[in-house]
Design goal:
Layout (H helix, E strand, L loop, with lengths): L10 H11 E6 L4 E6 L4 H59 L4 H29 L8 H24 L8 H36 L23 H30 L1
Antiparallel strand pairs: 1-2
Length: 263
């Protein structure tokens, strides 16, 4: 009667009653948790202790699964985001190539450079021929006029090609296209690398999800007690009679003192 829980007890009273009947002792050095349950019968104590162990194991598994699932979800979100950025970078590169009707500005610049070199060599040969013929033929001879016309044409072609390579006033030169192309290509490579990293992280998270990271190891299973710890009738009775004797002695002394004062 004195130790039971009232039927209409609220949650706070239930929690207070529970903490009074179920004791948990933690050894911080070894990490071992000792559980002690007090009940009215050995069977009830055994069932309660086993239920606490089972629920604790479920809680540990739930925390572990949630942690691994959250990590996998975050990794999957990173993969999707990286894939979107990579797709955008590649689309920007495709739009640049379509707008400029150009696959690779580097190759175009190389071809123009080679063409300028060839035209320059041809110009040097024509210029050398003009110098050698200047002392033999007249300046207005058809041969020299043809050579000078050819030389002027080469100069125009070389100037035009150089203007295609670099021109401060033009925005469609190879140098301007090359700068934009390299920026887009670098952005594509960077996003491709980030996508690879995100995929690797996702794969690691997927593998970790299949592993059991947290365990609840029961060192000693809950057992049915063979003898009752409480109540202790002999000790309780002795303490009760001793307390009653002390109270009687105090009361007797007070009564005797009062009588002496009255006399």
């Amino acid at each position: 009667f004195f130790s039971r829980l009232d039927k209409g007890a609220d949650l706070e009273k239930l929690w207070k009653y529970w903490t009074g009947k179920v004791k948990v002792y933690l050894d911080t050095m070894s990490g071992i948790v000792t559980l002690q349950v007090q009940a009215y019968t050995p069977e009830d104590a055994m069932k309660t202790a086993q239920a606490v162990v089972d629920l604790s194991e479920q809680l540990v598994n739930s925390i572990s699964n949630r942690s691994r699932s959250d990590a996998l979800e975050r990794a999957e979100a990173e993969v999707k985001l990286s894939a979107q950025k990579l797709a955008q970078a590649r689309q920007s590169l495709v739009e640049f190539r379509n707008a400029n009707v150009l696959i690779d500005p580097i190759t175009k610049a190389k071809n123009i450079g080679e063409l300028i070199g060839q035209l320059t060599v041809e110009r040097l040969q024509i210029d050398s021929n003009l110098r050698s013929m200047s002392g033999v033929l007249a300046a207005d001879s058809p041969s020299q006029r043809l050579q000078r016309t050819r030389l002027a044409t080469l100069d125009e072609q070389i100037a035009s090609l150089r203007q295609k390579l670099t021109d401060t006033k033009g925005g469609d030169t190879v140098s301007a296209q090359l700068a934009t192309f390299e920026e887009l290509e670098l952005n594509e490579k960077f996003n491709e690398k980030m996508y690879t990293v995100a995929q690797a992280a996702y794969e690691r998270a997927r593998q970790e999800r299949d592993k059991q990271l947290l365990y609840l190891v029961v060192v000693v299973r809950p057992t049915t007690p063979e003898s009752a710890t409480y109540p202790q009738p002999a000790l309780s009775s002795s303490l009760f009679f001793a307390s009653a004797l002390i109270l009687w002695a105090v009361a007797a002394l007070l009564v005797a003192a009062i009588k002496d004062q009255a006399i």
